Amino acid sequence: MKKWMKPGLALLLSFVLIIPLAACGQEKKEKIRIAEVTRSIFYAPLYAALDQGFFEDEGLDIELTTVWGGDKVMTSLLSDGADIGLVGSETSIYVYARGASDPVINFGQLTQTDGTFLVSRNEIEDFSWDQLKDSTFLGQRKGGMPQMVGEFVLKKHGIDPQNDLNLIQNIDFANISSAFAGGTGEFVQLFEPQASIFEKEGRGHIVASFGTESGHVPYTTFMAKQSFMEENDETVEKFTRALYKAQQWVADTDAKKIAEAIQPYFEDTDLEILEMAVDRYKSQGSFATDPILDEEEWNNLQNIMEEAGELPTEVLHEELVNTTIAEKVMN
Asked: Gene3D superfamilies from the xrefs (predicted)?
């Protein structure tokens, strides 16, 4: 004689069997908090990695926060308000020079050139750098990479920033484009997409690229405290692997498709402008194609800082740069 299971017991047993199966399909992801120095098309590979699910594939849940300033990124890292920072490598040198007991280590390069362009208020058919002499130049904040690279390039072309032009550096980063639009300056140093927007609107004309002029430099890198990297080596490896996948995807993908992928991060920017800016950065090799920050780039950075009078102390490549992780994921 068959014995039938009671309905209530059968229902309970079904839940017992289903819950473990559901849990297997919903593996908990590890949260990583990133503090980025600004929101910029210059960082397209990061947003592409998020859009294409490369971090998710590695079991990482990325919490991205824009903190608007290199000093604020460092504060977030040092106070454990963020796990990883995206900022210029010069900030790690500043922290190191202050005698930090837990230095900030560069482990994944994102951009390998300066990302600014020289924009003229008036159209210039045959531009030459000596045309900046005696002009009013709206530059970037003193001590930051844009300003240091800007001065490095000007000196390279025989222009003394302090004596050969009227250099304005007292305007906050976020307000530089507004100041130029309001009539301040004959030339301005701008990132994308603002440079392309001004050109499209007829408010300015791109006449030169500081990135092309300054050569390879670790302009923006991912970095973390040494203690975090030692305690979370597998996590950093997963992060770097996702970054490398994104860098390869960007290198192999046309500007339009990249623009479509990153558009959710730039809702107020037209797709046409996004595509134009991405294409400009791709064509001049601004996006690093792998995460390795090599010694030549590191030395170029310190030369630029030294030229600008902003290098507090010379730091060996191996002191603040870890290439082991990048080399591992690339192999």
From this structure: Periplasmic binding protein-like II
